[in-house]
Design goal:
By secondary structure, this protein is of the alpha+beta class. The chain has a domain of 174 residues: Uridine Diphospho-n-acetylenolpyruvylglucosamine Reductase, domain 3 (2-Layer Sandwich). It is 29% helix and 22% strand. The strands form four sheets. It has an eight-stranded antiparallel β-sheet with strand order 14-9-13-12-16-17-15-18. Strands 3, 4, 5, 6, 7 and 8 form a six-stranded antiparallel β-sheet that branches. Strand 6 and strand 7 form a beta hairpin. The longest helix is centred in the N-terminal third of the chain and has 17 residues. The radius of gyration is 22 Å and the shape is globular. It starts with a helix and ends with a helix.
Length: 496
């Protein structure tokens, strides 16, 4: 069986760096032409979507839409090491972008945790990482975008041009169109990362430290360039303080026998570690955070024979898709025992540091899911200059209105990716999304919100209150007057 799997997916890219050469502007224009031809070939009135081979969405998609040809839009167009910018196609993965920029001593400001996340996907969706406490969200380092809108036109937008589309595109999830080209800022980066892994036995103390470091960018007198954490229980939690450095020394390798999240665990105080910058960027991808344990990939005996090329999130995704298609777990494990189907609980929510302890205590009491990931978020300095710009979005107090975060405010992303028994909430009535609905209610009670890459169960009224009110429909009337794309609510709640 293992040999079959290896052969079936042997075309997967190595976990190590490869040379990525820019495709250039001619190839980009050819890719755009191919996309436009596929768009205009679709009969008027029929809805469209991207014909993607991969996805990092954890919700279904309607099969009633025509797929657009994006096969020529997956590369880095050019890297300018002097200006510290990159021109990137919308379907380019962060893995390719990182391998194209690191040889220049540069990296994107924020690199979402999984290698196959695309630039266009991160900007129209949501992505956070350990640098988000100082560098915000992926769309905040975008200088300019070309977007295919529902009219079949390519619209260029920026802080000065087509500002409404620029401000309302983030968190629109393809309801307004698709990013074809993005010009982004890059940051100079050193080759190594030193880690201080600080243990906490109290989530109140952890939350206070997290809030302080997020605002001041220092801990115990040293600069902090990256900040995230893992919570195993209310009494065992860790913050990981990262500092980029050019000091040479031995580095750990978590692409082989070691497992990164397990390495964080220690009895007290601070554990120190060191990684290459590339291994730090992709430290979570190797084991899909900790979700590889569901496939046995963390069992030492299995891990020894599990090829490194298959130790990556894109491969684990393939296993999940096979399970969804054939219901392997239900048909072979649960059904014979008379157990109901499980409920997938894959969510990233945000609450403020003040409310983080309450949410964590509640979550660990309400479920057996552990651990959870913590990642603080603050919008980039200067982003407040966007407020008041544009026409449609001019009255919004939020720089990015479809995912409201106020400048100067710290939020904490809490990520949990697992499941519960289908009758977890009510043993007498297993329901679709029952526990997820309970989570949504708790997060709303605490004044928070959640990312929309996974299932959502909000009513239209609740959704509007959390995600921009009337603005999604107002900008859609301009960018997609013929309704060629599903609305934001249809897309993220109704799985259109």
């Amino acid at each position: 069986m293992l040999s079959y799997v290896i052969n079936r997916f042997s075309g997967l890219r190595s976990v190590d760096a490869v040379e990525v050469l820019p495709v250039g502007w001619r190839a980009h224009r050819e890719g755009v032409d191919k996309l436009l031809r596929s768009f205009h070939a679709v009969p008027e009135g029929q809805r469209v979507r991207l014909a993607k081979k991969t996805s990092n969405l954890f919700r279904g998609r309607s099969g009633e839409q025509a797929g657009l040809d994006v096969s020529g839009l997956g590369g880095v167009i050019e890297v300018d090491p002097i200006a510290q910018t990159a021109e990137v196609q919308g379907m380019c993965t962060y893995e390719d972008l990182v391998d194209a920029t690191l040889p220049h001593g540069l990296m994107p400001f924020v690199v979402p945790q999984l290698k196959t996340i695309t630039l266009g996907g991160a900007v129209t969706g949501m992505g956070v990482e350990s640098t988000s406490f100082r560098d915000g969200l992926p769309h905040e380092s975008v200088l300019e975008m070309d977007i295919l809108t529902g009219t079949g036109e390519i619209i260029t937008c920026s802080r000065k041009e087509n500002v409404d589309l620029f401000r309302l595109f983030p968190n629109s999830y393809g309801s307004l169109g698709y990013a074809v080209r993005l010009k982004i800022e890059l940051r100079a980066v050193k080759p190594y990362v030193e880690l201080r892994e600080v243990r906490f036995s109290d989530v109140d103390e952890l939350s206070a430290v997290l809030a302080d470091v997020s605002q001041n960018h220092t801990y115990a007198g040293l600069d902090v360039h990256g900040l995230d954490g893992v919570v195993f229980s209310p009494n065992e939690a860790y913050l990981v303080m990262a500092r980029f450095t050019d000091e040479e020394g031995p580095t750990s390798d978590y692409t082989r026998d070691k497992i990164f999240y397990r390495s964080l665990q220690h009895a007290r105080g601070i554990r120190h570690d060191r990684l290459t910058v590339r291994d730090y960027i992709w430290r979570w991808d190797t084991d899909w955070f900790w979700c590889s344990r569901a496939f046995g990939a963390q069992n030492p005996k299995v891990r020894k024979v599990w090829p490194r090329e298959l130790r990556r999130s894109s491969f684990y995704w393939k296993i999940v898709r096979l399970d969804r298609k054939y219901e392997i777990e239900y048909n072979f494990i649960k059904k014979p025992k008379g157990l109901p189907r499980g409920e997938r609980v894959v969510q990233d929510i945000e609450v403020t540091p003040d409310n983080l302890p309450e949410f964590l205590r509640w979550f660990f009491q309400a479920s057996d899911i552990q651990p959870v990931w913590l990642c603080p978020i603050r919008l980039r300095d200067g982003v407040e200059s966007l407020i008041g710009t544009g026409d449609i979005a001019a009255d919004s107090p939020d720089p990015w209105p479809l995912y409201p975060l106020l400048p100067g405010q710290t939020w904490v992303n809490v990520g949990f990716w697992s499941g519960v028994e289908g009758n977890h909430v009510d043993p007498t009535a297993p329901g679709n999304g029952a526990f997820n609905r309970v989570i949504e209610a708790k997060v709303s009670e605490l004044g928070g919100h959640k990312s929309l890459y996974s299932e959502a169960f909000y009513s239209p009224e609740e959704f509007a209150e959390l995600y921009g009110g009337e603005l999604p429909e107002r900008i859609k009337a301009v960018a997609d007057p013929d309704n060629r794309f599903p609305s934001l609510y249809e897309k993220t709640v109704n799985n259109a």
